[in-house]
């Protein structure tokens, strides 16, 4: 049966990629609505043309409310405040929502957790299949290498990214911390400068680079005396995220209320 998908932030970098990913997916996934914010200059544009495809007849509109009854699942890659409003609207209507936005506060995350009691939500800091395989590898590496190594997370993204470290870097740190039974809030070190003193073994360091058009690089280093293991993922196109999010939307339609992630979609749990 067809899954009718709506996209918020349709004119954004990921929005356009998602329109393309739906067009390239199987026939049972269909773009049914494209939404931008009320001040967008692209309201009224054809969503297919926005994504560099031919016309698809789906016109960009200013309000989720106007189209929510026409969709089965919403995919939202926007900004935290917009996502929170959209999550609440979806929860009220029992519409599933795939959340790609990153950079939520603890209060905003609590709103998402509450909404997940009413509707199915799939939220992931990174929807690429490769990154989700890396999460599995990181868990294994951390358990085996344990307290004998220093662990550092490095990430690089394009110059337009507004939050740091990336949600993916934080998820990688969380996977490692969970495997080692450490509290990430206590052991994370975000950047270093000046007289930092020697490194404490328990800490997990994060380093951020923002430059040019880098789509997304992540490396976790496990460094011991005499050897080091590095697990690296490099995204060269946003389609890796787009394909994953569209796959998640198709999967989510059949799920009960609850909070899921890409590991659930891929059956990696
Ligand atoms: P972007 O190009 O800035 O796109 C965001 C879009 O949302 C823009 O078109 C923006 O419009 C629009 N928007 C803002 N407020 C809105 C509202 N109230 N209603 C509807 N649309 C609204 O950013 P991006 O690179 O696509 O990234 C978006 C988010 O996805 C970021 O948080 C990023 O970190 C995250 N992301 C996640 C993954 C993942 O796999 N989970 C992958 C890539 C990116 P204006 O530009 O006109 O304000």
UniProtKB/TrEMBL annotation:
Reactions performed catalytically: (S)-2,3,4,5-tetrahydrodipicolinate + NAD(+) + H2O = (2S,4S)-4-hydroxy-2,3,4,5-tetrahydrodipicolinate + NADH + H(+); (S)-2,3,4,5-tetrahydrodipicolinate + NADP(+) + H2O = (2S,4S)-4-hydroxy-2,3,4,5-tetrahydrodipicolinate + NADPH + H(+)
Transmembrane segments annotated in the record for this chain: none
Pathway recorded for this protein: Amino-acid biosynthesis; L-lysine biosynthesis via DAP pathway; (S)-tetrahydrodipicolinate from L-aspartate: step 4/4
Keyword Zinc recorded: no
EC number, as in UniProt: 1.17.1.8
Main enzyme class: oxidoreductase
Main localization category: cytoplasm
Matches recorded under HAMAP family: DapB (MF_00102)
Protein known as: 4-hydroxy-tetrahydrodipicolinate reductase
Lineage, top ranks: Bacteria, Pseudomonadati, Pseudomonadota, Gammaproteobacteria, Cellvibrionales
